[in-house]
Amino acid sequence: MSTTTDAARPASLSIGALAGRSGCKRQTIRWYEEIGMLPEAARTEGGHRVYGPQHLARLEFIRHARGLGFPLDDIRTLLDLSGQPGRSCDEVHEIGARLLDAVDARMRRLAAVREELHRIVASCTTGGPAASCRILDALADHHHDGCAAQSDTGAVG
Amino acid sequence: MSTTTDAARPASLSIGALAGRSGCKRQTIRWYEEIGMLPEAARTEGGHRVYGPQHLARLEFIRHARGLGFPLDDIRTLLDLSGQPGRSCDEVHEIGARLLDAVDARMRRLAAVREELHRIVASCTTGGPAASCRILDALADHHHDGCAAQSDTGAVG
DNA sequence: CATGGGGGCTACAGCGACTGTAGGTTCAAG
DNA sequence: CTTGAACCTACAGTCGCTGTAGCCCCCATG
């Protein structure tokens, strides 16, 4: 184990190195700093940001939580809570449970959409003229909806 | 069946009436017009928009397709294609199939996220101090990821 | 005919969570 | 010392809306 320049856990990182290790883009890191998700980085004399291992850990936490669908506000709360270890973890649990409910709801909705979409796409025999296209029929026909038009599937295409 | 003022399919609609019938908000309708998803409405002398049944049909098409997760650009294409019925429906089919793929991918990812989230939340016994909270442990620990951090779960909470 | 209020109008800012660009500066390797 | 990659700031754009401010129109009632 070396002292100052450990390749695995270096004591100081440029924004590019931090980006490489965390999987975030440089812009995203700067933006996280701007909105207060990351503490302000130290600077070199020339103004370049300098990060330490604690920034990497925090960024990994954020990224992992983001990957699970937590909104940044919740992540901020989680980070605050983990910073004051005396507090009850009820709030943490509640955030997780709330997100789990939201994920479940989203999955149900997505499943319904998938079914309709599958039915619509399967009903269309390719090659015909658009005039007789059942996909267009199905989209134009709002009557046997089943699931339509509450939004919140998320942008997908 | 009356002639000019059929309650079910009126010959002309204010933006509010169109909003009520289509389920879109007035702002959304104006915005759709602004970005060319809807043709410009006729106006009264005082400048109020006046819509006909064709606007309602188009808006219903848009709303249904949006409900299925189609992005507006795809919907525009679909609407263009349905306006030129001679063209092959291959392109329509391709858009639908592409969306179906995206929905499938999103469902798989969401299922993986749900599992991890469930595991994390279930591992946490409420009531303890945040210092020993397994949710925070799990989020801080990026090593047994399984699914993490590729984005695209969609904002959920 | 006046008035009140509900709906309409435009224009623009904001959301979430970034991404991309332009134009300039710094750093480190050769 | 030179070069060019990496960095800096600031700001616009993405997607699909939503909300606000401040004014105007239209119709029904008195």
Descriptive labels:
homodimer, 157 residues, Multidrug-efflux Transporter Regulator, Chain: A, Domain 2, two-stranded antiparallel ribbon, 6 helices, 54% helix
What can you see in these coordinates?
The structure is a homodimer of 157-residue chains. By secondary structure, the first copy, chain A, is mainly alpha-helical. Among the domains of chain A are: 15-68, Multidrug-efflux Transporter Regulator, Chain: A, Domain 2 (Orthogonal Bundle), CATH 1.10.1660.10; 90-140. In chain A, 54% of the residues lie in helices and 3% in strands. Chain A has helices at residues 15-22, 26-34, 53-67, 72-83, 90-122, 134-140, and strands at 42-43, 49-50. Chain A has a two-stranded antiparallel ribbon with strand order 1-2. The longest helix of chain A has 33 residues, at 90-122. The first copy, chain A, is elongated and about 70 Å long. The termini of chain A are far apart. Chains A and B meet through helix 3, helix 4, helix 5 and helix 6 of A and helix 3, helix 4, helix 5 and helix 6 of B. The structure holds a DNA duplex (30 and 30 nucleotides).
